[in-house]
Amino acid sequence: MPWDAHLHLHYQRRGDTTVAHHRHHGPLRLFHSLYPEGPGICHNVIVHPPGGLVEGDTLHVAVQADAGTHGLVSTPGATRFYRSDGEPATQRVHIRLEPGARLEWVPLETIAYPGCQARNALDVQLAAGSEWLAWDVTALGLPGSGQPFDRGCLHQRLCIEGHWLEQGRLDAADARLLDSPVGLGGHRCLGTLVLASGTPWSRERRERLLDAVRAVLPDGLNPLPAGATCPNDHVLVLRVLGPLVEPVMALVQQGWSALRQAAWGLPGQPARIWRV
Questions:
Q1: Is this model's pTM higher than 0.85 or not?
Q2: Which range among 89-93, 195-199, 267-271 shows the weakest confidence by mean pLDDT?
Q3: Within a domain: 3
Q4: C-alpha 56: how far from chain center
Q5: CA dihedral defined by 11, 267, 131, 276, rounded to 10 degrees?
Q6: Chain-centroid distance, C-alpha 179
């Protein structure tokens, strides 16, 4: 039988401390809170014990960050969409930030296995003064293990309400998308890093943030095609393509580190929970 799992994570302020409250149904869990940066920033890991999604599985994650809180959420391993012969597997994430809240959504990669039928959606609401720093790294197939993405489909959606919407269909049968220069150019891993604000940035701050993230990018399109831009005065986006997860994730993490320092004046060392 398919799993229908829910997790609600709520960050609240208690004095100078950000505390995490949660409730769950089904196989979604939250590790205990960690404070490697002090009480103001709460680090958490979301765990899906089955280890992947098969046909008909649905995961719902809701995160609310109250005013003045700062949370960092990651995962201990990849999100895996396995082969399906019928119904799609679905992950839905809804994030809501109240005024002045900060949230970092930094999971490990998503892997679309050959033959998967998958839907992966993330919707974000930002109140005035809140900021959201997040990434999505997606691998199509496992080329290093001899499992190319030669069949299957992944639907992706990333929506920042009122500011930015990206949704698309990565179909293994779409050779123009996967292999042509106007698509992925033969790469099978794509990374997106986003910094978004509920309040518009000044031109000076926007340029300062762009300069910070561009400073870590390759000079040309080798070894990884990458670029950063601001589609509007609320959103900054970094795009990366690569043949495998590791170099894409490494560059995305460098971008995360640069933006964390430039936007918030916080250290950019890799989060401790990535080593849990």
A1: yes
A2: 267-271
A3: no
A4: 22
A5: -40
A6: 24
Edge-to-edge strands of the sheet including 4-14? 17-25, 4-14, 58-65, 89-97, 117-126, 153-160, 164-171
17-61: pLDDT as tens digits: 999 999 999 999 998 899 999 999 999 999 998 889 999 999 999
Give the CA distances from residue 261 to residues 12, 166, 267, in Å, rounded to whole numbers and listed in that order. 24, 26, 6
| Contact by Cβ (8 Å): 112, 138 | yes
For residues 209 and 201, is the Cβ–Cβ distance under 8 A? yes
The domain total for the chain is 1
Two tokens at 84? 């399906």
d(CA 66, CA 102) in angstroms, rounded, equals 9
Element at 59 (helix H, strand E): strand 58-65
Domain limits for position 199: 13-217+225-265
Which residue, 158, 152, 24, is CA-closest to 82?
A: 152
Comparing 272 with 127, the larger pLDDT belongs to 127
Q: Nearest 5°: CA angle at 117, between 113 and 122? A: 95
Burial 118-142 (b: 16+ CB within 10 A, else e): bbbebbbbbeebbbbbbbbbbbbbb
**Structural domain includes residue 8:** no
4 inside domain: no
Which pLDDT does position 129 carry in this prediction?
A: 97
Q: Is residue 97 part of a domain?
A: yes
